[in-house]
Amino acid sequence: MSAEDSNPAATPTPCVDTQGDGRWMSLHNHFVSNSKDKEPDVLFVGDSLVQLLHQFEVWRELFSPLHALNFGVGGDATQHVLWRLSNGELAHISPKVVVLWVGTNNHGHTAEQTCGGIMAIVQLIKDKLPNAQTVILGLLPRGKMPNPLRDRNARVNKLVQEAVSSLPHASLLNHCYHQMSLIVAFVCLAPLEFD
Amino acid sequence: MSGDEMNPAAVAQAVVDVQGDDRWMSQHTRFVLECKDAEPEVLFIGDSMVQLMQQYEVWRELFSPLHALNFGIGGDTTCNVLWRLQNGELDNIWPKVAVVWVGTNNYEHSAEQVAGGIFAIAQLLTSRLPKTKVVVLGLLARGERPNPLREKNAAVNGLLRSLLPQLGQAQFLDVGEGFVHSDGTISTRDMFDFLHLTSAGYRAIAKPLSDLLLQILEETPEERRASLV
């Protein structure tokens, strides 16, 4: 088990504002204060794939009814999500399920490091929300044709699958047609299993 | 106006694939292919502000019916758009209108340079397509609160207002009104990350834009005469 500080993907790191309008921190603060008066059953957290989900009709149809909050930030890698969850985004809520979708932006990190980052987030969620289930979504293929990032994402998924196989509080949903409907089923079942 | 070779924002430049999946080039190649069969009346070109518009309902409702093509790529600067236009994305198409929306990603460049880059794009379009009207959209405010990028984008818009009339076929359209509230903040209801528009945000800008496009499309006398033959 590598120490957290030897894996950059598992070291909580805020995003530095290189552009000049402080949007990453604005969003983080927004999520923290947003969570103060909400009681979500489901929390979605991750990168742009999570963030963009919130913009489409499917969110209103499938996830709003589950009382879901969306803490997705475009461009985030595992170390950024780790920082956000360590700095207030979990402080005021107790969702039954956390849906975690992050890793495709971990450029420069190996598949092993990225898996380590994802598992560090899973551990953090367990520490802060002992009764929550974490559903990790598998990284999607990307790029028009086969390329190294597809290989890397597939390897991350494989490593995560192995890592969660022994954990009762976490599971991996790899990309499949019924991925999202499984999450709905999960949330509906959760109160029966984890009260 | 300084010569183009002195303005880095007016130098055509392809995006280098640093991530490893070559998506920028894949998208460019796809657009070049689209030019072979499409007969668009309206061409949209620019960055993610253009690209994302196609993902929302408003595109189907207001712009598809105008036979519009969307050549937006997230992250693009004026340099990238110039390169794409010079390398195939204008081949075999003769749109009546080209809508240009780019500049907010030009982080390395000053407001003057960005305005010069956008002007260079408008110049390229009017010289390649002399019958095409060019509509340049103003850069939107960004960030939750007042910040240097808002000032820069506003400065770019100010410069474009005076530069574009030099090109008879080009005009400037400001669609940014209403996004900044009286307390200086931008709402996530309009820009979900204080930069990219929500569905509601696009609805707000689509109306004045589609009104202008309809007006321009109705104005072209050659087509009207041709249809009477």
Helix/strand-derived category of chain A reads alpha/beta
Integer tally of domains of chain A: 1
Largest beta-sheet characterization of chain A: 5 strands, parallel
Q: What is the annotated CATH architecture of chain A?
A: 3-Layer(aba) Sandwich
Q: If you consult CATH, what is the topology of chain A? A: Rossmann fold
Strand order of the biggest β-sheet of chain A:
2-1-3-4-5
Helix content of chain B: 40-55%
Quaternary state of the chains: heterodimer
The average pLDDT score of chain A comes to 91
Q: Helicity level of chain A, as a percent range?
A: 40-55%
3D shape of chain B = globular
Secondary-structure-derived class of chain B: alpha/beta
Radius of gyration of chain A: 16 Å
Low-confidence stretches of chain B: none
Proportion of residues in β-strands of chain A: 5-15%
Q: Greatest interface and its residue counts?
A: A-B, 24 and 26 residues
Total number of β-strand segments of chain A?
5
**SS element count, helices of chain A:** 7
Task: Round the mean pLDDT of chain B to the nearest integer and report it.
Answer: 94
EC number (chain B): 3.1.1.47
Organism (chain B): Esox lucius
Protein name (chain B): Platelet-activating factor acetylhydrolase IB subunit alpha2
Domain SGNH hydrolase-type esterase (chain B): 44-204
What's a concise summary of this model?
The complex is a heterodimer of chains A (195) and B (229). Chain A is an alpha/beta fold.
List the helices and strands and how they pair.
The complex is a heterodimer of chains A (195) and B (229).
Chain A: H1 23-34, E1 42-46, H2 48-53, H3 57-63, E2 68-72, H4 78-86, E3 97-101, H5 111-128, E4 133-137, H6 148-164, E5 170-173, H7 179-194
Parallel strand pairs in A: 1-2, 1-3, 3-4, 4-5
Chain B: H1 23-37, E1 42-46, H2 48-53, H3 57-63, E2 68-72, H4 78-86, E3 97-101, H5 111-128, E4 133-137, H6 148-163, E5 170-173, H7 199-219, H8 221-228
Parallel strand pairs in B: 1-2, 1-3, 3-4, 4-5
Helix pairs in contact in B: 3-7, 4-5, 5-6
